[in-house]
Amino acid sequence: MSEAIAKARAGRAWWVPAVWGALLLAACLGMGALEGLFRWVEPDSRAVIYARADFLTLLGRHLLVVGVAALAAVAIGVGAAVAVTRRAGRDFLPLVAQLASIGQTFPPVAVLALAVPVLGFGTLPIIVALLLYGLLPIVRNTLAGIEGIDPGVREAARGMGMTGGQLLRQVELPLAAPVILAGIRTSVTINIATAAIGATVGASNLGDPIISGIVNGNTAYVLQGALLIGLLALTVDSVFARLQPAGPR
Amino acid sequence: MPEETPRPNIVLWSLLLAALPAWLGLDAVSVAPNRIVPGSGHSAAEVAGLPGLVASLVPALAVLWLAWRPTRERLRLALGLVVAMLAALPAWLALAAAELVDPALPQARMGIGGGVWVGLFLLLLALIELRTRLTLSRPLGWALLLVPLASLALCLSLWLEPLALRREYAGRSQQFLAAIGEHLLLVGSAVGLSLVIGVGLALAMRRWPRARELGFAVLNFLQTIPSLALFGLLLAPLAWLSARVDWLAALGVSGIGWAPALLALVGYSLLPMVRNTYVALEEVDPGVVDAARGMGMSRGQVFRQVRLPLALPVILEGIRITSVQAIGLTAVAALIGAGGLGTFIFQGLGQAAMDLVLLGALPILVMALAADALLGALTDLLRPGGAT
Amino acid sequence: MIDLIHVTKRFGATTAVDDISLSVAQGELCVLVGTSGCGKSTTLRMINRLIEHSDGEIHIDGQQIRAFREETLRRRMGYAIQSTGLFPHWTVARNIGLVPRLLKWPQARIRERVEELMTLLGLPVSEFADKYPRQLSGGQAQRVGVARALAADPDILLMDEPFGALDPITRETLQEELRALQGRLHKTIVFVTHDMDEALRLADRLVVMDQGRIKQQGHPLELLREPADAFVESLLGGEDRGLKEAALLPVSERMLPLSPRLLARERVAHDASLREALSIMLWRHAERLTVVDDEDLPIGELSLRRLVGAKAHE
Predict the structure, then answer these.
(1) Distance between CA atoms of residues A150 and C160, nearest Å
(2) Closest CB from C75, C84, C87 relative to A161
(3) How confident is residue C108, by pLDDT bands cut at 50, 70 and 90?
(4) Which InterPro entries match (chain B) (predicted)?
(5) Architecture of the domain defined by A2-243
(6) What's the pTM?
(7) Between residues C9 and A102, the one the model is more confident about
(8) Which of B207, B225, B337, C140 has the most crowded CB, counting CB atoms within 10 A?
(9) Superfamily of domain covering B173-382
(10) Which residues of B touch A226 (CB under 8 A)?
(11) What ipTM was predicted for this assembly?
């Protein structure tokens, strides 16, 4: 019965990200069709549709930066959290846990700004900054997920003769998965926003139209960029909402 | 009973063994004759010569030795050494400035290099590790930082005039103070407004449960929109409003400036505020409420004397999350002309003046950490029976 | 079967288990009992090496347990604990099949074994196989836990307060079922509890522990009749010992053949305990009971004098 409910929920929910995604694509491809609207917003400017790069390219770059950073952050973050919860790495657990929690009070903009003097302008520094900042919620949630497992479950697993690897793969990671996924969701949501600000340090992505619109006083550009970033964030977030099991276990 | 010899603290070993090559190998400082020319790097050895370098290594090696058999007393000693090293860092920079910067050039400046940054970072990690191992309270941990901070303040005011960061500050000290004021004002009013609105919304959701789902859905939606986009989306309608409604324009509302910033900040702050207030009021132990009602307290009395005091720490937690978040978001608001410390960041990025970026970013970082620590301490204080 | 020879466990400066020696024979149900912190759980967990012993030797079937790989050793023993430790993300059937799967049994054999065990433990396959642990009651979850421990048909079963969190009625039912199961399967069981009634009800061999040492061990009746010291005596219930002993003895032990007198009106089953017989006498104000067999036919009688008197001269 519960499976039927789960299926119904799945059936209901997949179209949500699909709709957001379709809107996003439509907005990328068909921004020109809204020229009349933007002309009304910005009657004085010569150009009202951002044309320095086409929106699909900007979207692609945005996704690339966030995606690469997210993949690396998941690999490193989950790996680190798993390492410090093993017997050999236990000594590092308090420090890593504290670092992850203190680090999250750092504003992402400040991290991005501090990355530039160290790493320079361009796409790579932004990826590194996003990766570093994105690690924190992933590490924190993976730790919480693994440490939150009922000690009796772990005890039983070992008492039944599971090896360390079997315990990790068959018990700990599956049980911690929802919490880890929530961490990845937080990480990606923040990074989509931070990447947009990265347009000010030389990454060309969906933040570009906004920055250029603000600099040139062209509200139409700002609106176009804001619309696309908003749609991108909602699309990605709704995918995560779909992946996440409903309610706590 | 013989006390067992503790295993070596491999965390301290790893941190210090990572710090040593950074200190020895990376540029410790860079010196430039003026703001335009890129600086030339100098290693730690160049600053105080070989004896100075050896002297700087002694405390680090001592900590390594102490961490090999980390009994409580030895760890306490190590903590003292780490604090001393942190306190010595500004003095060392002062020495480097005296040594390397030509006093004849009024614009000559010294930047802090990778070696010092990495060393500082790893020493702070060592401090956290030692605080955890010695199970010192959080406030005590912060208090330990006062020693290096006092040393920094002293060195900055007396000897560190050539430090690039200080030169940038000297050029715009009035603007800097104004920016801090703007930043705090924006954060303060956003948190204050969202507290009033948020508590009101949470109470409304408790009264009309059907509004709850919709309310949280809307707030979640808002929280998902990236800050830059939300600022941008507010630009057009606010500009339109101020062009048509005179009294709004008279108030200073326009598409750019404080108005969209404040609106967006309040929008972002509402979710954590409402969620915490709602959860706090909802999750007061039903047994306690039951007992209070059973003893004849009225609904109002239960709310004022039982629910609210018990919920207060969780609500404060909401204020803490909101404040930290707002401090960061206000930096972004500088892009739409709201002022604040973010102005320096974006100016600095525009001019490729990294020390100006630091002048904006470092205070923001300090503000966020301070807000987190202070509000966290206050929460612990308000929790019945003290910190958990 | 299981031999502990001068086994000691130290944690840092504290000694949790202090030089204990214990032999559990094949098919025996050995209960370790004592107050919390007496070292009984530590002792149990040293047998499957969840805790490594510091000194002494532990043998299984005459072989040192350190001769085995930890995992191999554990897969040879069943293990059931108070919190059940069922994997919340696996169905009941998958939980029970855990160890066979670790031992790489073929799928069909695992399925067959799981269904056999579910039937054995009173969990109808069609109803429970696809349920998740959170959908079970405490008693059902514990049955699944025991089934999982039995899955690979181990000779040895280690049970750490498995019924500790259950309500008294469910606990008693499961205790009876465990005894019945033991009668059929003849496993060697080491069972840890702090509940003396449970210990007396289950044990073939009762081991009383205190502060890491074994105070006394033997058949429950031996301990009841001759407690080694005041500690064991108070743990066994002090003045209550008479009732506890009576609970362990069947009516048939004190029954006299039917006398030519009139049959007493009140009846008691021949396999009831003396304690139950005493209770019937108290409740019914009767000094004499007729003992009946399984078919409810009179086979003897029991008098109050006989019930208490016979005990006195033993």
Answers:
(1) 16
(2) C75
(3) very high
(4) ABC_transp_perm/SBD (IPR051204), MetI-like (IPR000515), MetI-like_sf (IPR035906)
(5) Orthogonal Bundle (1.10)
(6) 0.82
(7) C9
(8) B225
(9) MetI-like (1.10.3720.10)
(10) 228-233
(11) 0.80
